[in-house]
Amino acid sequence: MSWFGKKKPPPPRAITHHAPPTLTLSMGDAAPVGGADTVLLLTERADPLPPAPVVAAAPPAKAPPPKAAPSPLKAVAADSYWTQTRIDAAEFLWGEDNLGPGDGAIAAGALADVPITVASQVLIASAGLGGLSRVLARHYGCWPTSMTPSPALAGIAQQRSNAADLSQKAAVTAYDAATVQFKANSFDMVAAHEVLTPVANKPRLMQQIVRAAKRGGTVVITEVVMTELGVASLSGPSRRSAAAGEALQAWLKLMHPTPQLWSHAQMMETFFSLNVDAESKNISPLYVDRINKIWGELSAKLEAGTIPRPLLPTVASDSERWAAFRTALDADALAVTRYTMKI
Q1: What residue segments make up the domains of the chain, in order of their start?
Q2: Strands (E), 46-153
Q3: Percentages helix, strand, coil for the chain, rounded to the nearest 5?
Q4: How far apart are CA 15 and CA 332, in angstroms?
Q5: Nearest CA-CA partner of 159 in 68, 43, 69, 71
Q6: Is 211 left (phi over 0), alpha (psi -120 to 50) or beta?
Q7: Angstrom distance (rounded) from CA 301 to CA 120
Q8: How many CB atoms neighbour CB 149 within 10 A?
Q9: 269-273-275 Cα angle (round to 5)
Q10: Strand partners, 218
């Protein structure tokens, strides 16, 4: 059980404001852009320019160039947030199929204590680029139901599953977090990783996630929440909460759209209203360690000049945002908390 709830929070500690590696983003630091660089989620028209008017006695105008072939992802809706450049920058920082520090090993860790077999019914409500779903399909032989609130991510994830010959076994579809109705009493394991933060009606989505599990099934929800100190900083800074409030506001200013944060207490109250007993664990140290590791790797890439030129601005802004997030964790304004429920 975490230190949340009725236990007293830890004593204040010195807050270190972390800065990402200094990115002097000159074009000399960038890797050359090859002909294979492709932007998949194009929304611009590819119509040719009209032909130039023909003037008498002048040579005939050149015919307009042919229209560009449609992108293979034209049917995939582009998100306002998950553009192809942002996806590429996230994978450059965190690795293939990973969009943030909590993906990969940390997300897989939510399933570590659950016995998964080829017959297991698993719902991944935060499939992202589908990496975890493909691991489950390959390693355990099960057929996870994999979904994401992002149409853009769902389209790319499905293409990657197709390429891995897992088009059906690791299929990924999109859903609307405001209206989704997961199949009730159907899954041995339900995992939702950082899907609640942008959602206004959190109780409804939490109810859908919980009711999807069978009797005896397991639900694991991982979310960024405000701590007691973070909540206190919003009602007026005190000597103890001033640093937490400063760190929280610095992070929020870099987040677009602004997260609709809940406190740990609100999460626990909602679980209680759903008649489930949730155990909570603060896994913030895992995120801090992951961010620290990436900064070391990013510094080496910067020195070697291997950051692709088109990604420079996004890598710079993302590194600033994650540095602010780490500072907010260190200040005890935020915590990444894993809630586990046995249904």
Answers
A1: 71-342
A2: 122-124, 145-148
A3: 35, 15, 50
A4: 9
A5: 71
A6: alpha
A7: 41
A8: 20
A9: 115
A10: 189, 342
Class of residue 307 by CB neighbours under 10 A (exposed 0-12, middle 13-18, buried 19+): buried
Tokens of 290: 């992951």
pLDDT digits (tens, 9 = 90+) for 42-101: 233 333 334 444 444 454 454 443 333 333 333 344 467 899 999 999 999 999 999 999
CB atoms within 10 A of CB 47: 9
Tokens of 149: 């609130």
Question: Is residue 214 helix, strand or coil?
Answer: strand
User: Do 123 and 182 touch, CB atoms closer than 8 A?
Assistant: yes
Write out the two tokens for 266: 């609100």
Single-letter amino acid code for the residue at 146:
S
The reply to whether the predicted model has a pTM over 0.90 is no
**Domain 71-342: which CATH number of 3.40.50.170, 3.40.50.300, 3.40.50.150, 3.40.190.10:** 3.40.50.150
